[in-house]
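**Protein of interest**
===
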Amino acid sequence: MPNVEVHGLGIRFGDKLRKRVRDEIFNAIRETSVELAADTVVTVIADECLNIGFTSCPFLRVIAEESEEDKISKIVKCLEPLGYDIEILAIKKFIQGKKIK
């Protein structure tokens, strides 16, 4: 299950912007593949990412298993037009937990 983390839209930005970015991410992935969008989660982390001049530097981090390289590539291709910096983090293994209701 790939995860797209959104970083840097923290205290300076409101919930509306964070929700808009989340929706933009899902819509961008869904346009390419409904199945890929259904398999992807988006995690919006309310943190700040600043450079030395205190300029906000939001970015996206795509996390998925090393074996899902094709999914990572498709997701990155979907996200590039959004204009954010993108980090890719390949993990060795993801273990699905029990569903929490």
Q: What stands out?
A: The mean pLDDT is 91. The CA atoms of residues 80 and 86 lie 8 Å apart. DSSP finds three helices and four strands in the chain. The domain at 3-91 is CATH 3.30.429.10 (Macrophage Migration Inhibitory Factor).
